[in-house]
């Protein structure tokens, strides 16, 4: 009996050492790393460095000799005095180099947010798209891919870089932009690994993005979100007026998928092979339970669009493009 008690004490000590108490206060999204599957935590490449550093990109790969290359190499060196000088001389920020890469796109790839913001404030076009042959020169190993027709906004959503998205989105002329697969910016928000910023989602909703558009594979943003365990964000857009009753390509609605996922994570929780998986499954059970309960309270056809109309009205009331700030646009 004593030996059994000692064994339990040793086992308990091992569990405490391997799974410290600090883990219990992490948010669900932090614990599961937005993997969307409730499994092992994803390690995101930004933990290793910038896109340019990790993927080995250099300005000379995208810009030929001349002012463009000089400007983009200055971005790479963080040479703010050179950048300011060329901007004052009227450097064209919107002339694209190879594969459709612009200086703004290069600032994003280099990963310098202050320079990125200054370029946006000086009129860099945030709606410029990568060329159809971009995969030939922008091949990534560690980061999510660069795709033909991508804008810096769509890349920021896909790469989970909310600061860049929020800096550029106020200057977006086309929040209803569709990519080659018919995906809206809201689809890109939910694409794995998925943006983790509710502020970015609020900005998209305030711009009046289409909530129920289906892409080429006949899925709405809600389908994407509920399948990839972005439950809190899905609930937010449902409350904004998105329909949970549109079928996906398999004929399943958001309601049906949510109920299936809830059942799956309940079983996953009971059969968890580790404490990490147990905690993740527990969080997801709570989130999917809240989602299913909300859907039960809002039967088919009863979810109105008042909130969407309110958001769209606020957006149309000020259709003019936001002007760049008058101050604070100098590099330091």
TrEMBL record:
ANK repeats by residue range: 99-131
Signal peptide per UniProt: 1-23
Region (Disordered): 309-332
Keywords (A to Z) from UniProt: ANK repeat, Repeat, Signal
Protein name per Swiss-Prot or TrEMBL: Ankyrin repeats (3 copies)
Gene3D superfamilies on file: Ankyrin repeat-containing domain
Stored PANTHER family: ANKYRIN REPEAT DOMAIN-CONTAINING PROTEIN 39-RELATED
InterPro entries: Ankyrin_rpt, Ankyrin_rpt-contain_sf
Organism for this UniProt entry: Novipirellula artificiosorum
